[in-house]
């Protein structure tokens, strides 16, 4: 499957629609424009196995570039639009990118990147950038027919940087593969997410430079679905788009659920969401009360998976399974699960340890052999981990505990902050929360909650005590924060990932964290 098939069978059908502007690109237009950009790559000596970088906000041009790279045998690096010039410089140089394609809305950073790098070309989209050539004008002069040496390329994405400088995940690229080679993610979507039929409409509310939105969007395009792309997530606008376009499939993160659930009831209930067949979520554990409310509201269409950009394994759980295994992220659908101790020994059912996958390709972190080696099990070189901690129950369902890096050790006791976060986020006066370990002279660390209050809520001692009591009423006291601080806006990525390291570093005297 590939969009070129649909350019022939339904050329005037929308391949994607921009949520705010309404700009529509048909399958025929996507085919022609991606072919033109592919010709432009070859003209600039960008050949199979080479790398290009995209530094852009969500745009109608994004997929034209990505599909051009995919059909040219290239690696395409999608860079966060939130980065500074030195951070973009690091990624384009580390990845070996030959060209940087930037959106005009990011011109101030793009110009600075041009001044401190020496790439072979710099192209702009959606407007002008000083010192850049306009991609649309360059590509418009090229043929709309396929290049002579078409072959499949792939993305090269960088880790989120929550635990250090981001690292590129560079999968093996077998040159000469057909561009419509079967996709594992497509197969999983068809099997597990009801991705069937000619009427599919897929709504994407997140930045396209992130792995999940990019890959799910391109997978649904492979199946002939129409994409609806939100330029930026807004909870009510999301519901409006579901109703307007009769959206059948979507992918979200738990913080988006929380924001929709905290809309006034009269706003939430006035939109028709009955067209949804599968609402897929991932990226972070979903608090049990939040997911219960979503299933009650939308019905048994909530699908969840656990995986990483590395692609070394995946679990999946549907609504019916989850209601019998609340809190689980599912059964393995790619790779075999192993829960191991620090020495790499497999642990009994029910015990928490590091999550490993076997039977899959271990991650390859570009230019970082130590990180690549560190992802492997000490006793089984073909078992790999993303660094998460979890347990499995007697039925084989996986439950995430937290990331190992965020575990709090207080007086020799291991505390996983996700539990307290899952409780506190359900409090009506809390908009967002991070639970972290902070220095304590006697115990080494103690548990603290940093809370972003809901709009209009006063931040006083009474609220602190109310939140502490709320947590203690639902969790053992040792798992609950001892203190609460307030923050008007926690550092959370648009994809929903909380930059907990940045919050934690405030209390440990560090300031070298990188946001991606």
Automatic annotation (TrEMBL):
Residues spanning the signal sequence: none
SUPFAM superfamilies the UniProt entry points to: Acetyl-CoA synthetase-like
MF terms (GO), sorted A to Z: CoA-ligase activity
Pfam families given in the database record: AMP-binding, AMP-binding_C
PROSITE patterns in alphabetical order: AMP_BINDING (PS00455)
Domain AMP-dependent synthetase/ligase: residue ranges: 6-360
Residue intervals of the AMP-binding enzyme C-terminal domain: 419-497
Gene3D superfamilies per the UniProt record, alphabetical: 3.30.300.30, N-terminal domain of ligase-like
Ranges annotated as spanning the membrane: none
PANTHER family, alphabetized: BLR3536 PROTEIN, LONG-CHAIN-FATTY-ACID--COA LIGASE
UniProt-recorded name of the protein: Acyl-CoA synthetase
């Amino acid at each position: 499957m590939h969009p070129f098939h649909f350019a022939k069978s339904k050329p005037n059908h929308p391949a994607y629609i921009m949520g705010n502007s309404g700009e529509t690109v048909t399958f025929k237009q996507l085919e022609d424009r991606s072919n033109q950009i592919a010709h432009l790559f070859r003209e600039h000596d960008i050949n199979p196995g080479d790398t290009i970088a995209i530094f852009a906000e969500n745009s109608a041009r994004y997929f034209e570039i990505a599909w051009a790279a995919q059909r040219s045998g290239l690696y395409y690096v999608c860079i966060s639009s939130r980065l500074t010039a030195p951070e973009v410089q690091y990624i384009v140089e580390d990845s070996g990118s030959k060209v940087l394609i930037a959106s005009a809305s990011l011109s101030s950073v793009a110009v600075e990147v041009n001044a401190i790098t020496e790439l072979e070309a710099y192209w702009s989209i959606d407007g002008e950038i000083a010192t850049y050539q306009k991609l649309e004008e360059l590509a418009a002069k090229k043929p709309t027919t396929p290049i002579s040496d078409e072959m499949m390329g792939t993305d090269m994405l960088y880790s989120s940087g929550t635990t250090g400088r981001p690292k590129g995940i560079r999968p093996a690229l077998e040159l000469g593969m057909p561009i419509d080679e079967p996709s594992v993610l497509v197969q999983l979507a068809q099997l597990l997410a009801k991705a069937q039929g000619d009427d599919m409409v897929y709504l994407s509310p997140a930045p396209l430079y992130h792995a999940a939105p990019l890959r799910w969007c391109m997978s649904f395009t492979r199946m002939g679905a129409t994409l609806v792309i939100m330029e930026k997530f807004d909870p009510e606008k999301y519901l409006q788009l579901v109703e307007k376009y009769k959206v059948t499939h979507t992918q979200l993160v738990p913080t988006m659920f929380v924001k929709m659930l905290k809309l006034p009831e009269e706003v939430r209930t006035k939109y028709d969401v009955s067209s949804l067949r599968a609402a897929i979520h991932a990226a972070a554990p979903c608090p049990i009360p939040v997911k219960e409310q979503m299933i009650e509201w939308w019905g048994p269409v909530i699908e969840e998976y656990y995986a990483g950009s590395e692609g070394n394994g995946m679990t999946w759980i549907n609504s019916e399974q989850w209601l019998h295994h609340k809190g689980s992220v599912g059964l393995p659908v790619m790779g075999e699960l192993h829960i191991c101790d620090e020495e790499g020994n497999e642990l009994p059912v029910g015990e928490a340890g590091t999550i490993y996958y076997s039977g899959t390709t271990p991650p390859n972190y570009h230019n970082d052999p130590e990180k690549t080696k560190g992802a492997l099990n000490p006793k089984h070189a073909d078992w790999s981990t993303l660094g998460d901690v979890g347990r499995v129950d007697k039925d084989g369902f996986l439950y995430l505990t937290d990331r190992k890096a965020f575990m709090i050790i207080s007086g020799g006791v291991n505390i996983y902050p996700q539990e307290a976060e899952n409780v506190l986020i359900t409090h009506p006066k809390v908009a967002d929360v991070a639970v972290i370990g902070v220095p304590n002279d006697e115990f080494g660390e103690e548990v603290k909650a940093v809370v972003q209050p809901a709009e209009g809520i006063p931040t006083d001692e009474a609220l602190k005590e109310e939140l502490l009591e709320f947590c203690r009423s639902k969790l053992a006291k040792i798992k609950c924060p001892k203190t609460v601080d307030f923050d008007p806006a926690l550092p959370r990525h648009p994809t929903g990932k909380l930059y907990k390291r940045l919050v934690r570093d405030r209390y440990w005297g560090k300031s070298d964290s990188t946001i991606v």
